[in-house]
Every structure is written in structure tokens, then in C-alpha cells.
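anyone seen this seq b4? input:
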Amino acid sequence: MSKLGIFVNRQTLSSSEQLTALVKCRDVGESMGHTVEFIFPVDIKKIPKLDALFIRANTDPMNATYVAAKIASLYGVPVIDDPLSIQICADKINMYMHLMKKGISIPNTRFLKNKEFGPEQAKRLFRDLGSPLVLKEPSTSFSVRVEKVSTISELLKTAKRFFKLSDWIVAQEYIESRFDWRIGVLNGELLYACRYIIPSETFKIQASVNGHIVYCDVESVPADQVPAEVVSLGIAAGKAIGSGLYGVDIKESNGKLYVIEVNDNPSLEGGEDSHYPDMFRKIITYLTSGDNCPQVEVLSDQVYGPHGIKGEYGLGSSAVIPQEYAMMENDAYLYKIDFSER
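predicted toks r here
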């Protein structure tokens, strides 16, 4: 059978839940007849000799997970997450542009450019998006640097802080809900579904409140109890990014659905699989069956920056990028994230 590597790091092993999920994945793989080995960053040279690689560490184009994914892809080793998905999902502007190009319903969205944003633009944002609105720094994960603002002064102050990290930031209308649907998608099919119950102290699934981290509760939901339109939207959003493993966050408000996020390295240790006992088996089968073909050197026409975009996208309240915030098709590629203060 196949030799499967599970890429981990210290952070991956920092909680009993994560460790339990990793051991479960290993045990499932071995029960299927595969050899399973945990691969740490210092073992990265072993990747070309693997038959498949499953990355279970926080992904980012600036850390070892991307190197691992890229090595696997270059050597023809099926990998989750693939380097293309990591690049797209690590940058919220990149991610939202993929969703917009496929007409996926997202909150009303603006991309804001540093040094071209001031009080007048802030007033216009509240007029167009309502109050409060949500600001996001593009490279954020785990709800860090995602903040709700209700006044012009709050908006300008938060934007100034985020602009120290990125030339561009995201502003969205606030969609109020007490839970997010999380739809797990693998190769364009439903893998699992759950609700993330948002803590009463915050509007995010994870936040620091009075010096303490509060987390959402996870409720696994059987497939036959998930609204069909939620599943369809989650699958469509995953396909807009690629054919790998994704966790799609969806909010429902006033009868409408909005994709809030597509995560390339979704949590699998919070009880998401309670009603989906074959979750790891499906992932391992996908990796080892030969159906997962690494995407090599196809980034040029699939990874977008916020340029060449104007007009309306999506359905109803999805993104509308007005001329003031748009980058014209012939503009130079100016978008980059400065990680120097990260």
C-alpha cells in the first residue's frame, strides 16, 4: 500500500484535541493498510519519497508548510493542502476575488488601498455598507485582525493599524448571526457539516475577551439535517478555490446565505466528524487513490491580486467594488503583504 506522511509541528501538538485527531488519522490510515509517518519540518527532505502528504499544521506561504506543499507538488506527491490553495486562502483579497469570479454570494465588500483612504472614503463606506462594518487584514487567520467598527474614528484608527501590515485591507458589511455553518468540502463533495456557535461575548468564532481566549462551540450536524442550499453554496465556494480540502464558513441572515471564509486547512479536531465517522478515511482515500493530481506551475492564471476588477459580482449583496477602490485591468500588480511587523 501507500506511504502517507502527516506534516506536523509543535503548534499542531499543542492541545490534546489536536493530538487525538492526529492519532485517529494515523490509526485510520494504518487500518487501511498504509504506512503512516509524522513528518516534522526537520524531516522535510523525506517528502519526495512519500506516496502522499497530509499537512496538519497552520498553512501560510511564509512558513514551512508551504515549502512542504511545494516540494510535494514538484515531486508529484499528492498533497493536502496543495500550494495553490495555500496561496489563495492565505490572502483574503485573493480568496474573495476567486469567489467573486465564480459568482459566489459574499457580504457586500470593498478593497481599501493604503494612502488613498481617508475620512471621506470612510463616510462613503458607512453609507454604502451600513453600520457596523467589519475590517479584515488580508493575511489574518483564527479571526485575528478582524474587527467590527461603528464610527468613522474607529474605522480610521483600525484601518491605520491594519495598513501597517498590508497595502490593502478588506471592508465588509456586518452579517449578524449566532452561528456559522462550517461545510467541509473534499474534491467538490460534502465531507462534513457543523455549526460553529459564536460566543455571546463576541461576533467571531474565536476572540480575546478581557485577556482570555473564548472559542466557539462545535455542533456536528447530520447531512440530512443540513439545508440543501447551504451544502450547495459550500461546495460551490470550495470549487471556486480548487479541488482539495476546504472548510467553508457560511452565515444566514434574512433568508440569504453569505460565504464568509474559505479555509484551506480546516479544523478536524473539534468534533466536526461526530456524524461523519468516515471523514479521515475519505481524506486518505483521496490522497492515496491517484485521484489527487498535484497542480504544478499553474499559478500565473489562477492566483489573482486585486486588479482588473470593477463592476458588480455575485448575487444580491455580494461584492461591489466602486471605481474609487478598483484596480484597472492595465494597472501594475501592486498588492503585497508586508510581514515585517507581523
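The mean pLDDT is 82. The first strand starts at residue 3 and ends at 7. kinda curious what u guys think
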